[in-house]
Amino acid sequence: MKNFKEELLKTKLVSVWGAGYLGYTKLIKLQSRGFKADVFDYTGTNFEKKLKKGEYLDREQVYSWSVNGDIPVLDISRINMIKDPARMFDSRVHVIAFPAIDREGNNALKELAGIFIKNKRRLKGALVIFQSAGRPGVIDRYFTAPLKQNGCGCGFASAFRSDWTIEDYFARNEKRILAADSEKSLAEAQFFYNLLGIKFKALGTIKEAELYENAKNTFQYMTTVFINQLSFAYPDTNVRGMVKYLLNDVELNESHLCIGAGGSKIPISVENISEGSKKPQFLSLIKESQESNMSLIFNYAEVIKKAGCKSVTIMGLTVRGNQKSIDLSPSVAIAEYLNKLGIEVYIDDPLYDEKTIRKLLPFSRHVDLLKQGLKSQAVLLMTDHNRYKYFTQKDIDSLGIRDASLVIDNVALFKDFKFSPKTVYHLVGDGKMGNIK
């Protein structure tokens, strides 16, 4: 890290691959912070020729890159326009400023990887930064993996951009998501972006960052489709008047990774929207969401069966810890499906006694974990009851939970406990579903 900082500050030279919108705007930012740049016109925009003639940008670029048609001019004296890609390896930072796969399906990233591999001796200690997010995993597949296999001693990071105009890029001031292939690469990327005066947040891997960027845009896409569906489903209601409040008032932080969206308030509101509509056929997203919700709940039952477990203890029937309500409870739905799969179901819930549980789920067995210990192979921790919050490592050990074959944690209460080496612990959404066999 020390050598990286010293060499970067010694020359303040950055290699920018690509001279389209991403490259041009990155060059403006670099120049504003006193950096020089080697630029290779990888995407074929005739950058050098047009820039020297004062023809870059052309009319189409101006009006596709800017809302107001006002684009800052580059200082040509601080740009080295490179024709031979082998001359691009004098800097410690390489910015990849074009999409991995373009609209015509051309894999420019794969071609660029070949150039980097040919010059691998000059890449030692360098940092490669990607600005454009494509399909999750595409950067690792076509660039970072081949370079690592060929012994290129550089690091990799991503700082994906979601701006669509010059105005967005310079005025929005949103935090960039940084991710990298190692802690060292991440620290170097953070240092570089601090020099550029760009705020950032950190994610783990580049693939996670690719997924994040695509999911963020997909979220917006689905929201737009939903509010458009509302306007058709409620043709005599001024949906436009309420949408401006709706989009500001939704508390998305209340959404979280879990086994099924339960509770009485949200699912009943979903039903109310459908039942109150004159044209419910337009609300396809709602119908699909309801079906998907149940499917995801049942999928976890299938996971337990796939793991070879013949019995499971469901810890918590209630939707929320310490609230005595099982209206539209995912725990009830998964218990019923587990029974259909031939898996023996035990229920532990401090708010429901044996008689009540037998009435609600007659196929199940009531168990008091604190008195009887674990009687099943698998554990499904569904709710954050106070009883479970007070569990200690001693309880995990003495009650037999430590030796369960499979522990699926829906509420992250057990994530710091130690289990047997033979136990598969899965926290919902932790990326370890593939470990369950």
In short:
By secondary structure, this protein is α/β, with parallel strands linked by helices. It contains 17 helices and 14 strands. It folds into three domains: 2-206, NAD(P)-binding Rossmann-like Domain (Rossmann fold, 3-Layer(aba) Sandwich); 213-293, no CATH class; 294-435, NAD(P)-binding Rossmann-like Domain (Rossmann fold).
Largest sheet entry: 8 strands, mixed
Cα gyration radius (Å): 28 Å
The best one-word shape is: globular
Number of domains: 3
Terminal CA distance reads 40 Å
Mean pLDDT: 89
**Structural class, judged by helices and strands?**
alpha/beta
Please state how the strands of the largest beta sheet are arranged side by side: 3-2-1-4-5-6-7-8
Percent range for β-strand residues? 5-15%
CATH-assigned homologous superfamily of the largest domain: NAD(P)-binding Rossmann-like Domain
Number of helices: 17
Number of extended strands: 14
Highest-level CATH class of the largest domain: Alpha Beta
Quaternary arrangement of the chains shown?
single chain
Describe this structure in words.
It is a single chain. The strands form 2 sheets. The protein has an 8-stranded mixed beta sheet with strand order 3-2-1-4-5-6-7-8, with helices on both faces. The protein has a 6-stranded parallel beta sheet with strand order 11-10-9-12-13-14, covered by helices on one side. The chain starts with a helix and ends in a 10-residue tail after the last strand. The protein is an alpha/beta fold and 437 residues long. β9, α13 (330-340) and β10 (344-348) form a beta-alpha-beta unit. α5 runs parallel beside α6 and α12 crosses α13 (330-340). It folds into 3 domains: 2-206, Rossmann fold (3-Layer(aba) Sandwich); 213-293, no CATH class; 294-435, Rossmann fold, CATH 3.40.50. The protein has helices spanning 2-11, 21-32, 47-53, 59-65, 108-118, 138-149, 166-171, 183-195, 206-233, 239-249, 265-275, 284-306, 330-340, 354-360, 369-372, 386-389, 393-398, and strands at 13-17, 36-40, 79-82, 93-96, 127-130, 155-159, 176-180, 200-202, 311-315, 344-348, 365-366, 378-381, 406-409, 424-427.
